[in-house]
Design a protein that fits this description.
alpha+beta; eight-stranded antiparallel sheet; three-stranded antiparallel sheet; disordered N terminus
């Protein structure tokens, strides 16, 4: 541990000079704890300098937080949840998280597998009549989970032979939502609400059933020239999006809690978690490049080991990252996007932050 963090420790040592006498007087000195504490203090300074600059460069409207297990290394809110009345974003602000929602759908499928209600190798046609034609008959649950079914938009011809490629399909994940309803006898909304209660995610909901406050309305444009997306968050339940594919609402703190419990094997069993995280496909992401894909989760190819997923619903770009080797969560939520500049421009702040946190992880683990 001391070797791994020697570089950080040297720089951070001066911060603790005033505590030297207390450490010397201590009967038992936990060197690892001291090293961890020193590193966390120094990392906090680096994160603040770098990510504050991202906020400034892009006038980023949203929330960013970095946690190492239960320790907050960085947190900042900026801008408005409602641009018209100038309600400020705070720690209680609830955002639409787009396709970050997919990991919740995947986990609920895996929970039904643990309960003996389905097998990942089952054909989807066993559960859904819609898969009895169009060449969909042999698509499996596994292939919907990792986007290798060949399905694009439901009702259209498959775009490649089942299992032979990768094509990201919201319709595939909405079909998974229907399977959850079929085998559980409860609506998707009720299933995910039960999951939130189990995890302790008190401020998470879906676009269908949200009735609370503190929701960040979604906008296109910029702070000076903006257009509010109508009928949010109810529109997330519409056919072109779908709750199971992209309709969950959440907060920084709820996603942090989710990450900690999920990746420690406390929501699904450790052996099930391995299935969730297994790289069973690869994709070329238009923003983040080449990556592996598991079940509703993406992963770095190469170092550092990172599990993540981006999300985009009109006006709501998001990114949730977890680094398992240091138990670090990086969560980025926003509620405005300038689509005229393109999606790549919209995600520049997210990409810059991920590049930096990837670098920090690599330095920490060298």
């Amino acid at each position: 541990m001391i070797k791994k963090f020697f570089f950080f420790f040297l720089i951070a040592a001066t911060i603790f000079s005033c505590q030297k006498s207390e450490i010397v007087q201590s009967k038992i000195v936990d060197k690892n704890a001291i090293a961890d504490s020193a590193v966390n203090v120094y990392k906090t300074k680096l994160y603040k300098k770098q990510i504050d600059s991202v906020f400034g460069k892009y006038n980023f409207n949203g929330s960013v937080a970095i946690f190492k297990d239960s320790v907050t290394l960085y947190r900042k809110n900026n801008g408005f949840s409602d641009f018209k009345v100038k309600n400020k974003i705070d720690n209680q602000t609830i955002f639409a998280i787009g396709s970050v929602s997919k990991q919740f759908t995947a986990v609920m499928i895996l929970l039904e597998m643990e309960n003996g209600k389905l097998s990942l190798e089952d054909k989807v046609s066993k559960y859904l009549k819609e898969f009895h034609s169009n060449g969909y008959e042999n698509i499996t649950i596994h292939q919907l989970l990792n986007h290798t079914s060949g399905l694009n938009n439901f009702g259209e011809k498959l775009i490649f032979k089942i299992g032979s490629g990768f094509n990201y399909s919201n319709d595939g994940f909405n079909a998974l939502g229907k399977i959850i309803e079929n085998v559980s006898g409860k609506s998707y909304d009720q299933n995910v609400t039960d999951l939130f209660k189990k995890v302790g995610m008190k401020n998470s909901s879906t676009g269908n059933i949200f009735e609370g406050e503190n929701f960040a309305g979604a906008y296109l444009g910029n702070a000076k020239n903006f257009e509010k997306i109508a009928n949010m968050p109810k529109r997330l339940g519409n056919k072109e999006i779908g709750i199971a594919a992209g309709g969950i609402l959440s907060t920084i703190d709820d996603l942090h809690l989710w990450n900690n419990l999920l990746y420690s094997g406390k929501i699904i069993k450790p052996e099930t978690l391995k299935k969730f995280l297994n790289k069973s496909a690869e994709r070329q992401h238009q923003i983040f490049g080449k990556m592996g894909y598991g079940y509703g989760i993406m992963m770095n190819i190469g170092k550092p080991l990172a599990y993540f997923h981006s999300g985009y619903i009109k006006g709501s770009p998001s990114l949730n990252i977890y680094y398992p080797e240091t138990k670090t969560s990086v969560i980025i939520l926003s509620n405005i996007a300038d689509e005229e500049k393109g999606k790549s421009a919209t995600f520049k702040p997210h990409r810059e932050i991920k590049n930096f946190t990837d670098m920090m992880e690599n330095v920490s683990l060298d």
